[in-house]
Amino acid sequence: MDKRPWVDPKKCISCGACVSLAPKTFELDEKDMNATAVAKSKPGDKKEDVDLAIQTCPTAAIKWK
Ligand code: SF4
Prior knowledge:
Layout: E1 5-7, H1 17-21, E2 26-28, E3 37-39, H2 47-56, E4 62-64
Antiparallel strand pairs: 1-4, 2-3
The protein binds iron/sulfur cluster (SF4).
Pfam family, one: Fer4_13
InterPro entries: 3Fe4S_ferredoxin (IPR001080), 4Fe4S_Fe-S-bd (IPR017896), Fe-S_cluster_ET (IPR051269)
Keywords: Electron transport, Iron, Iron-sulfur, Metal-binding, Transport
């Protein structure tokens, strides 16, 4: 994967959908009071699964960067 997914913390509503669809790429940040999703430093899911997570995000908070 050349590009990496990035979560906009201002848009994320912590629904957990991306974590369910691509658990090796996204996680909820337990250190953040709002537990927003963050992309792991080494995304571990297939691009299709990450794309599905991006499409499923209800607030369009995830982008490829
Ligand atoms: S799917 Fe979107 S709103 Fe839900 S936790 Fe992931 S980034 Fe946040």
